[in-house]
Amino acid sequence: MGNKGENNRQRIVSAADQLFYRRGYNQTSFRDISDETGIPRGNFYYYFKTKEDILGAVIDARVNAFEEMLEACSSSASDPRERLLCFTNMLSVSEDAVLQAGCPIGTLSSELAKDDDAYQEMSRAVFTVIRQWLVKQFNALGSSSSDEKAMDLLARMQGVCVMACAFDDRKYLRRSLADIQAWVNSQTLS
Amino acid sequence: MGNKGENNRQRIVSAADQLFYRRGYNQTSFRDISDETGIPRGNFYYYFKTKEDILGAVIDARVNAFEEMLEACSSSASDPRERLLCFTNMLSVSEDAVLQAGCPIGTLSSELAKDDDAYQEMSRAVFTVIRQWLVKQFNALGSSSSDEKAMDLLARMQGVCVMACAFDDRKYLRRSLADIQAWVNSQTLS
DNA sequence: GTCTATAGCCGGATAGAC
DNA sequence: GTCTATCCGGCTATAGAC
Q1: Quick one: CA torsion of B81, B83, B87, B88, rounded to 10 degrees?
Q2: Which of A123, A165, A176 comes nearest B110 by C-beta?
Q3: Which terminus, N or C, of chain B has the lesser number of Cβ atoms within 10 Å?
Q4: Rounded mean pLDDT of chain B?
């Protein structure tokens, strides 16, 4: 009952997470994950039944990571606008990664939409966690149609990621984040 | 000197175009294109040296198709706002496809960003054609910072495509297109 | 639990007959 | 120009020793 196995499992998920982001799910092979972790290819099947199962574990890990991040934003301020700014600031913290590979959630979702349908529903979970948290913040601001605003904010950030990555344009990314944050600040507390 | 060869070449590019859109570039095999066209796999190498060359031809075809489409929008109206609305209406015309596979330009760009760098620059060409046309229209409206507005409009449309596809949400897509078009209409002719 | 070897399949690419 | 047969390598997945 040692937890060495759990360590290895986590290391596989963590490496797969990074690789799925930087190369894409379909373009990441077991060999890549093996090279990254030093764990032999054959061992993966002790922890996971299929590659799809690894994808599921990666998505679970991302859901957890975003839940923690959103919780941290919730804790960092009581003003919902401040919380929303904390969330959008992700685009600044991850600037280099966004320019190179886009948004991890958006690009995975777009990729999986072209594979089997079951995959796409898995990836939607990450968006859903964020969407619901955003709805809470807009509700706290007394907004009408909070879900629409949540979707609008998500869409705006996704669009900025797509374009910033497509043109590898750091200035555009920074300007657009500033625009988004100005919009958030304009959301009045009724 | 028959043009039968040119026909086959076009049929390959056309089938590849569709498949790259619906399944992704990396997930489309020569076998897929062969099944779709009835042209044997081996023949592809008479028309193209590598799969990458087929990608190049597909991107060229898309550039041409968008140039024609934008030209049609230019011809359809003299009011730049009307022209911009004509362009954004693409999201309505391609509703089903967008819900299933996202934006053909954006998703290809995101996919290729994770492959070799050279690929990504190829795919940027399609965005660039549209971007320049949009700048012209905003200039005609007397806008300041037309390029920023062009990028903002593109980003907004990209974001809507990502989210509409992720949630397979037709209502959201329609509402967001209406929002975008309202924004276009609010761009005053100075 | 860990590791090696390998099966079985499919990918892009090539050779060469017609 | 068209088509078939095939090479070679990489992929996921499995078998089985330790």
Answers
A1: 20
A2: A165
A3: N
A4: 96
Closest CA of chain A from B28, distance in Å: 10
Q: Are B57 and B13 in contact (CB under 8 A)?
A: yes
Question: pLDDT for B1-59, tens place per residue?
Answer: 456 678 999 999 999 999 999 999 999 999 999 999 999 999 999 999 999 999 999 99
Q: Please spell the DSSP secondary structure of B63-83, one letter per residue.
A: HHHHHHHHHHHHHH-SSHHHH
Residue nearest to nucleotide D5 (CA to C1'): B42
Q: A17, A163, A108, A97: which is closest to B109 by C-alpha?
A: A163
Instruction: Tell me if chain B has a CB within 8 Å of the CB of A88.
Output: no
CA distance B115 to chain A (A): 6
Q: Which domains can be identified in chain A, with CATH numbers? A: 52-186 (1.10.357.10)
- Cβ–Cβ below 8 Å for A101 and B115: no
Residue at minimum CA to C1' distance from nucleotide C4: A42
Please report which residue ranges of chain A form alpha helices under DSSP H. 4-23, 30-37, 44-47, 51-76, 80-88, 90-93, 95-101, 104-113, 117-140, 146-166, 170-186
Closest residue in A to B163 (Cα) is: A155
